[in-house]
Write a structure and sequence with these properties.
NADPH-dependent FMN reductase domain-containing protein; FMN_Rdtase-like_dom; Flavoprotein-like_sf; Rossmann fold; 3 strands; NAD(P)H-dep_reductase
Length: about 160
């Protein structure tokens, strides 16, 4: 398992002319290599104005670009098992962003498991050490992780 924070990558805004003039940035190549090394994705994102974050969409747009080998980057998502969790300060808990991200991943060919988790009042939901304060919420998000692992194991054994 590898934890990725997009803040650590500082990717330029994806734009076709940028790619034509400068190519795919090395930080994108690093993300592509990480995606190639893993069988599953657990994507966690806050909700911004009813959608997933711009940095998440930008990263996906870059990762889907052709790899160094020439292989389409979009294949990094194809048949990869994915789960989506989201959070928001509002009562919906990022449900809209979670649904939007599911659609993007499915369009790219990922197998998105039905389990998901949206956390409302996220700004109040964590302890000082970063853990979920509510045992029920903690169990729900862990169940998503377990579901992701279970489906990934089932599909990789075929």
């Amino acid at each position: 398992m590898t934890f990725i924070s997009l803040a650590d990558y500082q990717l330029p805004l994806y734009e076709g002319d940028f790619e034509m003039e400068r190519g795919v940035p090395e930080r994108v190549r690093e993300l592509q290599r990480l995606f190639a090394e893993h069988e599953a994705l657990l994507i966690a994102s806050p909700e911004h104005n009813g959608g997933y974050t711009a940095s998440l969409k930008n990263a996906i747009d870059w990762i889907s670009r052709p790899r160094e080998s020439g292989e389409p980057g979009v294949l990094l998502f194809a048949r990869k098992v994915a789960a989506v969790v989201s959070a928001s300060p509002g009562p919906m808990g990022g449900l809209r962003s979670m649904l939007g991200m599911r659609g993007v991943l499915e369009k790219l060919g990922a197998i998105v498991i039905p389990q998901g988790f949206s956390l409302g009042a996220a700004h109040l939901a964590f302890t000082k050490d970063g853990n979920l304060a509510d045992a029920k919420a903690d169990a729900e998000v862990r169940a998503v992780g377990a579901g992701l692992v279970g489906v990934t194991r089932q599909l990789s054994s075929r």
